[in-house]
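Reopening this one. Same input as before:
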Amino acid sequence: MSRTRAATPVPARMGSTPEAYARFGIEPRVIKPSEDGMRTDGCKGTYEWWYFDAHLDDDAMLVVAFMTKEFTDLNKPLSPVIRIDLTLPDGTQLNKLVELPADSFSAFTETCDVRIGDSVFAGDLHAYTIRARVEEVEVEVRLTGQVPAWRPETGHWLFGEDGESYFAWLPAVPQGVVEATYSVGGDSHTVTGVGYHDHNWGNASVLDLMHHGYWARGAAGPYSVIASYITAQERYGYAALPVFMLARDGQLIADDAGKVTFEALGRYTDAKTGKPVDNITRYTYTDGEERYVITYTRHADLAANRFVDDLKGPKKVAAKLIGFDGAYLRFAGELRIERYEDDELAESYTDNALCELMYFGKARP
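Same output, byte for byte:
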């Protein structure tokens, strides 16, 4: 009987060394407006997007993303895309996407000022203006930060012996006040709410780097939180890449991912995508005798998309032939933030929250 030796996993880690900071031209704990400016050139082999979401006071939910291209197709040249996902107060979901010519796109490197046609995504790490229209859906947003821009270490996950592949992430507005006007076929509503903006870019397909990952944000009581738990692809040994940020009254109080444990409970299989989904995800941050427990509970599905459904022509055929079944799911639910002192519950707050699951790989046993 012979056995095959398992391949040694390729390293995957958060860039946190002085060499990593120097490589990307940034400083520890100092975030400059240029980090929310364009960080790639939009060419083949790169991707970049500026993302915004909000939970509005009329119970509508809004997502807007400006992308240099869809991240499932990095080999394309610059192919700007605008995505608007609007869930109306009655639960109606409107998911709109348009790809525009390359010459309709422009962006500054010194600050966030992205234009795709007549649409705008611009700001300075504190105040942002977002205007976009796709088909009959039009939005205009003013976002004002309540929590300062933040990133985990360099914000760059490095993959490979020399970190030659990377995925970068900057939460430019971890939480902010929103004034939004959304219009569907001319029926316009102006409302306030709570919002979030981040910026992502990289030089390798996330489909090749990440097997799956949960991401969530929200606010409850005086607290704001961003939490993520990413599992790298098999060649990287399914390495766990956690992220955690907790702020109180607009001030950062906890962000050491090494102090976080993650739990996933109530697993089921999503009927549309075939992916395993957990009804409850929990992050426990332990710092001496003090402990924070952050629990997200899924209540409703906002999106369940198979990436192959967005492909066309030969690429769709090829994806099906190789069995690619990557999916993206977004949920609405409850966020509960609890603080314990010496195992005694000291504080507990609940509120609404958004949670996402990106599942690129095959479902693991």
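So the earlier flakiness isn't reproducible anymore. For the record, Residues 313-321 form the longest helix (9 residues).
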